[in-house]
UniProtKB/TrEMBL annotation:
<dbReference type="GO" id="GO:0044773">
    <property type="term" value="P:mitotic DNA damage checkpoint signaling"/>
</dbReference>
<protein>
    <submittedName>
        <fullName>Camk family protein kinase</fullName>
    </submittedName>
</protein>
<feature type="domain" description="Protein kinase">
    <location>
        <begin position="205"/>
        <end position="371"/>
    </location>
</feature>
<dbReference type="GO" id="GO:0005634">
    <property type="term" value="C:nucleus"/>
</dbReference>
<dbReference type="InterPro" id="IPR008271">
    <property type="entry name" value="Ser/Thr_kinase_AS"/>
</dbReference>
<dbReference type="GO" id="GO:0004674">
    <property type="term" value="F:protein serine/threonine kinase activity"/>
</dbReference>
<keyword id="KW-0418">Kinase</keyword>
<dbReference type="InterPro" id="IPR011009">
    <property type="entry name" value="Kinase-like_dom_sf"/>
</dbReference>
<dbReference type="Pfam" id="PF00069">
    <property type="entry name" value="Pkinase"/>
</dbReference>
<dbReference type="GO" id="GO:0005737">
    <property type="term" value="C:cytoplasm"/>
</dbReference>
<dbReference type="InterPro" id="IPR000719">
    <property type="entry name" value="Prot_kinase_dom"/>
</dbReference>
<keyword id="KW-0808">Transferase</keyword>
<dbReference type="GO" id="GO:0005524">
    <property type="term" value="F:ATP binding"/>
</dbReference>
Length: 371
């Protein structure tokens, strides 16, 4: 006779169902102790080995948990993990780093990858005592930037190519391969108070105020990486770009003014230098650097959110409420702040000559417009 299938009792079936439901509703626990297994992460960039020593570092068994294959090549992946205070993992390379270098005369932490606490920019930090890290940067326009003895330096996907070399007498060379080109989600990262990372500002590491041929100091200080074009005026031959300051991780606006008559703008650039480096007022754009070239000049200034010509198209400005009363949040702030700025310029014996909506810039501070 055929064997009858096992039929659980009602009590056994109830217990089994309860066990299944308990398992399904229970919070997931990590099988491994690695941060990759316990938190949500996304690969930001990979380190592709470019020489034999870098390849040996990847082949080391101690580093295998960070190695993944991309296009048939083993690389080290660096992830963004919002639950970590430092935000990145693995973040340190050295004798005591996440990525191990088992070698004499190597620092406990040779280099590390850190996020800027406020901007979210990824920064390479040279922690070696001799500051021997070298970075080769190729911009999208094929201009080459190279950096050494930098302390900390932004790694930004706007670059066409980035190669990192470190290690002293035995050099490890890696190329940065970007996997995530979106901004780091600062809202997802731990609160600002608990974050660890870089905190540089343009005021703590200011650029050279004046850069000019024939003047002592660096010519064409290569610390501003072009990102996007903000504005272009063919009549005045001016272009404004949004740039990232590779030294601090903050964005700036760089205005480039060109003229066909060689030497004409040297005088104008000199005038701008005298004016802009001597002004300090809350309602006047701060200029960080003036670069004077034979037929052009560059002005490096604070990056703002927009100008008044864009604001007047919004409903708040098209239909202002309680205009020029004590409760006015549109007309009075603009007039008051601009009059303060013009009064300061008059005190400095300067006439603006071109006050118009396009030249009245703003940024949002705690929900209010600051002009």
């Amino acid at each position: 006779s055929q064997k009858q299938p096992f039929q659980p009792t009602k009590v056994e079936a109830t217990q089994k169902l309860r066990l299944l439901l308990t398992h399904a509703l229970a919070p997931r626990t990590a099988i491994m102790s690695s941060p990759r297994a316990t938190t949500v992460s996304s690969v930001v960039f990979s380190l592709k080995p470019c020489n034999r020593h870098a390849q040996n570092l990847i082949s080391d068994l101690a580093n295998q948990s960070f190695v993944r294959s991309h296009d048939g090549c083993d690389m080290i992946d660096v992830d963004f993990i919002p639950d970590r205070c430092d935000g990145l993992y693995p973040a340190a390379i050295g004798k005591k780093g996440h990525i191990k270098i088992d070698r004499n005369f190597i620092a406990k932490i040779q280099v590390s990858f850190e996020l800027h606490k406020e901007t979210g920019e990824i920064m390479l930090v040279d922690r070696s005592p001799s500051q021997n890290c070298y970075v080769y940067y190729v911009q999208s326009d094929h201009e080459i930037l190279d950096f050494y003895k930098f302390g900390a330096l932004v790694l930004n996907p706007a670059a066409h190519e980035i190669v990192i070399t470190f290690g002293g007498s035995i050099k490890y060379e890696f190329e940065v391969k970007w996997r995530m080109r979106d901004w780091i989600d600062l809202e997802a990262w731990k609160s600002l108070e608990t974050r660890t990372g870089q905190v540089q500002t343009l005021r703590s590491l200011p650029p050279t105020k004046r850069v000019e041929e024939g003047v002592e100091g660096p010519l064409h200080e290569l610390r501003f990486l072009l990102q996007t074009k903000i504005a272009c005026n063919f009549c005045t031959r001016t272009t404004i770009h949004k740039c990232i300051d590779l030294r601090t991780g903050h964005c700036v606006a760089v205005k480039h003014v060109v003229d066909l008559i060689k030497g004409r703008y040297r005088e104008e650039g000199e005038a701008c230098k005298k004016i802009t480096t001597d002004l300090s007022h809350p309602h006047i754009i701060e200029f960080f650097q003036v670069e004077i070239l034979p037929d052009s000049f560059n002005l490096v200034m604070e990056l703002q959110d927009g100008d008044l010509s864009g604001l007047v198209c919004t409903r708040e400005f098209r239909e202002p409420q309680q205009l020029f009363t004590d409760a006015d949040t549109v007309g009075r702030p603009i007039l008051l702040q601009m009059l303060k700025a013009l009064d300061y310029l008059a005190f400095k014996d300067i006439i603006h000559r071109d006050v118009k909506p396009h030249n009245i810039l703003y940024r949002r501070i705690n929900g209010a417009y600051h002009y």
